[in-house]
Amino acid sequence: MTTQCIFTKVFFAGAKLMLEKWATDKDLNKFSQYFSEQWLSHLCYWYEGAARFTPSSNNGLESLNGRIKQHYTMRNKLPLAPFLQLAEKMLVDWSINNVQQPFQLHLTINNDLDVKAYDWINKVDRNDILQLDAFTFVVPSKEPQMNTCSWVNCLYSMTWSSYEHFKQWLGSARILNYSNMLPPIFCSCKYGLKEYSCIHTIGLMMIWSVQPIPQLIGKRNPKGRRKKVKYALSKD
Questions:
Q1: Is the pLDDT at 21 greater than 90, yes or no?
Q2: Taking the mean position of all CA atoms in its chain, how far away is CA 184?
Q3: Domain shared by 94 and 116, yes or no
Q4: Residues 6 or more apart in contact with residue 22 via CB below 8 angstroms
Q5: C-beta separation of 139 from 176 below 8 A
Q6: Least buried of 133, 147, 173, 201, by fewest C-beta within 10 Å?
Q7: What residues make up the domain containing 86?
Q8: What percent of the chain has pLDDT over 70?
C-alpha cells in the first residue's frame, strides 16, 4: 500500500469518526451535513498530503502579488491601458531574471537541520523505528501517546475507538517513504510536508551512513593552541 493510499484511507477514517462525534450534538447537524457534502463528496482531496511534493498553500501567489504591489504598481489601482503596459514590463523582467537565476532543481540541506537530526537520533529509541516495506518506515513523534507497534496495528486495521483515540494515534508517529532516496523525501510530519526534508528523514539517513554526521557537535575546541599555563590560585 503506497503512502498516498495510506493518507487517503486515514483521512476518510478520521473524517468518519469526526462526523460520528458531531452527530451527538444536534446543533451541528446542518454543519455536519454541509461538511460531508462539500468537503468529503465534492472536494475530497483538500487535506495536507493529498498531493505529494506539490504546494499546499497559495503562499507563492501571495508573495508574487506583494512584489507586484511593491515594485511595480506602488500599491495604486491603475487603469487598464497603463496596467497592460506594466504587465508587459513585468513579463520581460521576469523572463530575464529566470535566465539569470534559474529555478533550483534540487533541495539543499542546511547545517541547522543536520544538527537537529543528529540530536534526534541520539534521543530516539531505535527499537521504536519500524520498517513497513522496502521504502516505508515509521518513527515515533516528539511526544508519542502510544508505541510504534500499536500505531502500526491501528494503521493496518484502520480501527479506532473514538475520534479522540484517532487524534492520539495521529500524533504519536510519523511515516516516511524513501522511494526517492534523495530529497525530496516524504515524511508525514508538518516540516516534511512543507519543506520536503526534516529531522526524521535526515536522521534515518545518518543512521544508515548515507548522510554524513555533522562534525564537532558539542566537542568544538577553541581557536588556537591549547594553553598549558593554568589560572592563578587554581589547584593542580
A1: yes
A2: 11
A3: no
A4: 28, 31, 32
A5: yes
A6: 133
A7: 59-100
A8: 88
